[in-house]
């Protein structure tokens, strides 16, 4: 290639180098194909420990991105043309160069795997999925929704529908998060972090929002499992810690706190942490509600609460309703909606809270008055009072 176009190529490479510096968590691979006559010479580079492991002509080297691109430019002088493919999560950049021109194209990454037409499967919902079969195949396989040959597993169809609906329910809230900075999402009681991986995929590869994720769980085993899945997917913008939620102290701004089916008062720990760190969004899908059931005692309802099933259902409603009221007192706009059908589980509510206003002391007084009338001392109030003292 002539020196003039190699200079142009170097200009494009400066852009790639800056992109790598800003988005190295998203980088997947870089490949180069040189052409001389009818012969092709291929090289491939993958991320390893902040550098690129590059294999060309049977020789592997560990290089910085700057040095790799400089080497490619130097090598280009020996060939008639080249095609460089820079792949990151959700995006593929292709640079082609010869003696006539240098061009760059950018497009969304697409799955090249053949899959069945799942839209014809009656057990899938008749709607436009946000986590689409095809493009999201590596994710769906890693979290066990899809088989290796690209089919949604029959016993995972319900879970697939649920995780996609979860994203749909909070999509508008996600759009309110800052777009000019890297956002941080904290998953409290993350378990194997399936929903966190789904949100990571959706924000990064669909919405093109820069984000980091932190997963907390008290179990070392599930944290190891989450780390393993993150490594498999190449999701380097995730970190996990085996720690009690109430002991966690963030070292950065938290934009969103999420909690899915954290058992009993673990949901309250997550809500209290979200309030304490002034999270922009708090999303919780509570699980069991044992605490208030054993506490509350309201004389006007005695003739109703003598029926155990009704006392339990009232306790469920009171628990989540009072959680919503506490969030309102802390300046959050709150909505409580059905997450999934009550036919699947009665624990099917989602609490969505967006920080919009200053704290409202009158709401807090209303909350405390309700506690007094119910003879109850909810965990959320206790956790917040402990944090205020600390």
Structural description of this entry:
The protein contains 12 helices and 14 strands. The protein is 39% helix and 24% strand. The strands form 2 sheets. A 7-stranded antiparallel beta sheet has the order 4-3-2-1-5-6-7, covered by helices on one side. The protein has 390 residues and is an alpha/beta fold. It has 2 domains: 3-108, no CATH class; 161-389, Vaccinia Virus protein VP39 (Rossmann fold, 3-Layer(aba) Sandwich), CATH 3.40.50. The N and C termini lie far apart (66 Å). It comes from Clostridium cibarium.
Main sheet record = 7 strands, antiparallel
Count of structural domains: 2
Coarse structural class: alpha/beta
Number of strands: 14
Order of helices and strands: HEEEEHEEEHHEHEHEEHEHHHEEHH
Helix count from the secondary structure assignment: 12
Radius of gyration: 26 Å
CATH superfamily of the largest domain: Vaccinia Virus protein VP39
What's the rounded overall pLDDT mean?
90
Large-scale geometry: elongated
Q: What fraction of residues sit in β-strands? A: 15-25%
Mind telling me which CATH architecture of the largest domain this is?
A: 3-Layer(aba) Sandwich
In short:
The protein has helices spanning 3-23, 65-76, 137-142, 157-174, 194-206, 220-233, 266-276, 290-295, 302-305, 308-329, 361-374, 379-389, and strands spanning 27-36, 39-48, 51-56, 59-63, 81-88, 91-97, 102-108, 183-188, 211-217, 238-242, 256-260, 281-285, 332-338, 349-355. The chain is of the alpha/beta class. Mean pLDDT is 90; it is low at 112-122.
């Amino acid at each position: 290639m002539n020196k003039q176009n190699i200079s142009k190529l170097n200009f494009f490479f400066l852009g790639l180098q800056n992109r790598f510096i800003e988005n190295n968590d998203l980088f997947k691979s870089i490949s180069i194909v040189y052409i001389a006559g009818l012969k092709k010479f291929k090289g491939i580079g993958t991320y390893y420990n902040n550098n690129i492991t590059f294999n060309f002509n049977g020789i592997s080297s560990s290089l910085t991105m700057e040095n790799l691109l400089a080497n490619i430019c130097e090598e280009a002088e020996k060939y008639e043309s080249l095609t460089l493919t820079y792949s990151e999560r959700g995006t593929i950049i292709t640079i082609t160069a010869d003696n006539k021109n240098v061009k760059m194209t950018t497009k969304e990454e697409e799955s090249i795997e053949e899959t069945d037409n799942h839209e014809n499967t009656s057990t899938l919902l008749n709607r436009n999925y946000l986590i689409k079969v095809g493009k999201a195949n590596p994710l769906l396989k890693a979290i066990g929704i899809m088989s290796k040959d690209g089919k949604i597993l029959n016993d995972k169809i319900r879970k697939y529908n649920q995780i996609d609906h979860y994203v749909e329910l909070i999509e508008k809230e996600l759009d309110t998060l800052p777009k000019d900075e890297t956002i941080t999402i904290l998953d409290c009681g993350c378990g194997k972090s399936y929903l966190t991986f789904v949100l990571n995929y959706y924000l990064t590869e669909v919405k093109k929002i820069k984000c980091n994720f932190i997963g907390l769980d008290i179990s070392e085993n599930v944290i190891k499992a989450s780390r393993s899945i993150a490594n498999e997917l190449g999701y380097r913008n995730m970190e996990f810690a085996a720690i009690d939620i109430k002991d966690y102290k963030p070292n950065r701004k938290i934009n969103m706190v999420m909690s899915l089916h954290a058992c009993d008062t673990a949901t309250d720990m997550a809500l209290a942490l979200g309030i304490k760190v002034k999270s922009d969004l708090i999303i919780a899908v509570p699980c069991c509600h044992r605490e208030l059931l054993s506490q509350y005692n309201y004389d006007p309802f005695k003739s109703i609460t003598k029926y155990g099933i009704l006392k339990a259902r009232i306790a469920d409603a009171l628990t989540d309703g009072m959680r919503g009221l506490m969030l309102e007192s802390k300046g959050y706009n709150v909505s409580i909606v059905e997450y999934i059908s009550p036919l699947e589980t009665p624990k099917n509510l989602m609490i969505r809270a967006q920080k919009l206003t200053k704290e409202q002391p009158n709401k807090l007084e209303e909350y405390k008055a309700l506690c007094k009338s119910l003879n109850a001392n909810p965990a959320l109030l206790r956790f917040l009072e402990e944090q205020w003292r600390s």
